[in-house]
Amino acid sequence: MARPIAATQLENKYARLMGAYLVIDHEVEPVVGMPAIIEKQLEIENRKKKMLADLRAMAIVIRQFEPDWNHEAVKPIHTRPRHRKFGDGAKATYRVLRKATEPLSQWSIAKALVHELGITDPGERTLYQLSSVAYGNCRRGLERGMIERHEGKPIKYSLKPRPSRATAASSRPSAGI
Questions:
Q1: Whose CA, among 12, 15, 30, 167, lies 20 to 30 Å from 96?
Q2: Is pLDDT of 60 > 80?
Q3: DSSP tag of 103
Q4: Three-state SS letters, 6-44
Q5: Quick check: pTM over 0.90?
């Protein structure tokens, strides 16, 4: 018999909450003074108590669906906070392509994104991630007709030139006069 979807979703939430519970002590916020430190520590302890209560409640509900469910078999899911807003990579990719004097490869765009996003001392993993960002944005730009793909090895990309206003006005259909 297939596993109920509610149990799967609850187990996923359980794993995420467990991951958050395990890293809550590592939250770093700049607080000054002993009263502020104590207040922050009490806030964290209260949040941990609430998380534990939620974990117990989720375990009870999951056991309603699966009586032999083992909470120790669930691996915690650690989520990392976003460092940038959604869409910053796309905007930066278009800025890089706009500044470029010649078509750029995916790897060249990634290296330029390092400077555009203000990343200091990027590691190899960061460069690969930025390369994926560049590829995804170039692919979406191709679909939208904003970017050109230049054949050859390596494949290079550039922004399509915008039509001038006179050309755009002459290509519009007339009002039927």
A1: 167
A2: yes
A3: -
A4: HHHHHHHHHHHHHHHHHHHHHCCCCCCCHHHHHHHHHHH
A5: no
Can you point out the beta strands (E) in 26-169? 104-105, 147-150, 156-159
Residue 159: exposure state from Cβ atoms within 10 A (0-12, 13-18, ≥19): middle
Strands 104-105 and 147-150: unpaired
Helix (H, G, I), strand (E, B) or coil at 125: helix
Cα–Cα distances (Å) from 98 to 103, 104, 130, 143, 168, in that order, read 10, 11, 17, 18, 20
Note the pLDDT of residue 35.
87
Tell me how far apart the alpha carbons of residues 136 and 140 are, in angstroms, rounded to a whole number.
Answer: 6
**Alpha-carbon 19 to chain mean position:** 18
First to last CA, the chain: 69
